[in-house]
Amino acid sequence: xxxxxxxxxxxxxxxxxxxxxxxxxxxxxxxxxxxxxxxxxxxxxxxxxxxxxxxxxxxxxxxxxxxxxxxxxxxxxxxxxxxxxxxxxxxxxxxxxxxxxxxxxxxxxxxxxxxxxxxxxxxxxxxxxxxxxxxxxxxxxxxxxxxxxxxxxxxxxxxxxxxxxxxxxxxxxxxxxxxxxxxxxxxxxxxxxxxxxxxxxxxxxxxxxxxxxxxxxxxxxxxxxxxxxxxxxxxxxxxxxxxxxxxxxxxxxxxxxxxxxxxxxxxxxxxxxxxxxxxxxxxxxxxxxxxxxxxxxxxxxxxxxxxxxxxxxxxxxxxxxxxxxxxxxxxxxxxxxxxxxxxxxxxxxxxxxxxxxxxxxxxxxxxxxxxxxxxxxxxxxxxxxxxxxxxxxxxxxxxxxxxxxxxxxxxxxxxxxxxxxxxxxxxxxxxxxxxxxxxxxxxxxxxxxxxxxxxxxxxxxxxxxxxxxxxxxxxxxxxxxxxxxxxxxxxxxxxxxxxxxxxxxxxxxxxxxxxxxx
Length: 518
What we know:
Helix content: 55-70%
Strand order of the largest sheet: 3-4-6-5
Mean pLDDT: 85
Structural class: mainly alpha
Radius of gyration: 26 Å
Number of strands: 6
């Protein structure tokens, strides 16, 4: 029976499952996170403002502890975007962008599986797992661009390998140019391609998987376009420094992040239960299924598994890369389970259950065919346009409470400091550094979220003061610090308030205490 062509008007406005997933995830992300809570956003905004003033800093300009030290703006493009959005439309526009980036990233994960003709219900199941397992990363930060671009890269690679679409390779150089100018995580893309190329070359030479041999000519083409893409990454204001910047995270020039910052700590059951559960799920599916992963897929699982175990920050990347890979194994295992169930299940009710399964299977096949035809996404465009209008016009700010979470910032103290000329420098809590950079542009900070500048020495001095460790007062004298702004619950707050005779409480609010030297 010949399949009927869907009329253009239907293809234009009939939503695909991809559209519905993007809309649903967008609504979830937007409603669940309506206030800016990422402490680094503030120095990103100030940096964007400085850039639009025609200044491209190459050294630190915001702190007095690292002033003049080399500073590579590897996120400069994101910072300009954030500042322009905030200046033009307010904080709600940044919430909108965050929700859109998250929605399209998860939509692409689903699309990758649908392109493999995975059962729609299996694809939805794995997309939902991805949503929950990556929940920690959906803050308003440049890293979201890396997540989205990684999903694009996975989709393009699959199109090239499995559907002989050579044209998609032309997108790669452009993708990496945009990527490196928005976030230094571009290197993740080359790690992905490198793992695939190495595995495919090995398989081509040794016939490890004879059913999945990639012609050497096509491997060479991929190598060539990857090399060209790498050369294109030098098209950034930092030139070679921007290209080399991510390598510092695995070298000896950066502080020992896994001992300092939670997202850089080694993943374990105590701090990453979601990852451990997903990892066990992946191992189980690979073990139970008779479908063997291809060599490039196995390489990706091992490489991104290593990164995920080495730092919590990389767990979402592992989930996004690996879950679409094991989709055939999940589908096969589920099919085997139901087959086994029907062999041992009592006759009563068996036919009814079989009819239900067949019903959903038929609908899944229909959805897969329909999904390929509904590629215009008109409804999605209209939805995004309408929501964007209301958000950017500020009509949803008050009813939804969109804006800034005042419970996590020293609002009243900072308002007080705006009216006061500081006689000396101020020690500040780490997480408030960015906020002070934004709200008090004439004052420099002790520390903020740019750990690549402060490095281990700066972090050691910060923790020495916060923990009242031996020599903490010498640190304050070294930097001519006459003011201390810290959270009420910190050890140093209680010491200065109750024990010290050298400091007095000048101002406080619901969150913070401001001490001045007597």
